[in-house]
Design a protein that fits this description.
Elements lengths: L2 E5 L3 E3 L2 E3 L15 E5 L8 E6 L4 E7 L2 E6 L4 E6 L4 E5 L4 E5 L6 E6 L8 E2 L2 H9 L1
Antiparallel strand pairs: 1-9, 2-3, 4-11, 5-10, 5-12, 6-9, 6-11, 7-8, 7-10
This protein binds dTDP-4-keto-6-deoxyglucose.
The site of dTDP-4-keto-6-deoxyglucose has 10 residues, from strand 4, strand 5 and strand 6.
Length: 133
């Protein structure tokens, strides 16, 4: 499975906590080309349901929680994101679905490429064909 959970290094003192993520580091294994964020989410809405041919990403729940379903065509696993000091790295060719958003969940996503809709695989059957072939 081409994903892993990252424990970010927390710098904290009596004023609060701070996390820094630099490109090509232990925590971000790619050059950062884009950052986007998702907010105003709703519990009954699902997102994702696609894979990426090239894109690598790190997703952080800055506030609230949601569940990721991750699928490499052979296995399907679920991961909860619910802390700003945890990142979910998802590599290439991984089907992902996002669900069970808490009200007002805020996700920040660090991405290895600019947005390219042609790079998405939006059909699960096509995803299975791509990874087999
Ligand atoms: C992913 C998960 C975690 C843009 O114009 N630029 C962008 O950089 C992105 C990410 C999206 N968009 C547009 C395309 C759609 O019209 O924003 C709209 C919503 O995007 P989408 O339906 O792809 O959102 P999610 O939450 O299903 O998926 C997004 C990312 O697209 C995807 O790469 O892994 O978040």
């Amino acid at each position: 499975m081409n994903y892993r959970l990252i424990d970010f290094n927390i710098m904290g003192d009596s004023r609060g906590k701070l996390i820094a993520a630099e490109e090509l580091s232990e925590f971000v294994p790619f050059e950062i080309k884009r950052v986007y964020w998702i907010f105003d989410t709703l519990p009954d809405e699902e997102r994702g349901k696609h894979a990426h041919k090239e894109l690598e990403q790190i997703i952080v729940a800055m506030d609230g929680a949601c569940q990721f379903v991750l699928d490499d065509g052979k296995k399907r696993e679920t991961v909860w994101l619910n802390r700003p000091d945890k990142g979910l790295y998802i590599g290439k060719n991984m089907w992902r679905e996002m669900r069970h958003f808490s009200y007002g969940c805020k996700l920040m996503i660090i991405a290895s490429t600019k947005y390219d809709p042609k790079e998405y695989i939006r059909s699960y059957d096509e995803f299975l064909k791509t990874i087999k072939g």
